[in-house]
Amino acid sequence: MKLAELSQKPKLLKVMIDREDIVEKYGEELEFFVYDRQPLDVFSKLANAESGDLGGTTMLLKDLILDEEANCIMNDDNILPMDVMIEAIKLIGDRLGK
After folding, report:
1. Pick from 8, 5, 32: nearest CA to 18
2. Taking the complete model, does pTM exceed 0.85, yes or no?
C-alpha cells in the first residue's frame, strides 16, 4: 500500500459526554465534535494537558471542541465549565489515541 492512500481529509466525529454526575448536573448528555485527525503538535499539547499541564489547555480546546458545523464552541467571550472541559479533554484523548 502506498502511504498516500492513508492520507485523508479530517472528518468530524461526534463525542458524547455521558458521565453520570455531569448528566445529572446539566440535565442531559452533552454533545460536541472533534476532527478524527490532528497535526502532531496538537497530539503533543493534548498529552501535556492530560498529564496535568493545564497552561495551554484552554487554547488547545478552543481549536478541538467544535459544533456539528465545525465551528469552535469556545472563544474569547465564551468558555465551558471546568468539569465539562476536563471530561472533554479525557474523551478527546481517548478518541484520538485509538
Report:
1. 32
2. no
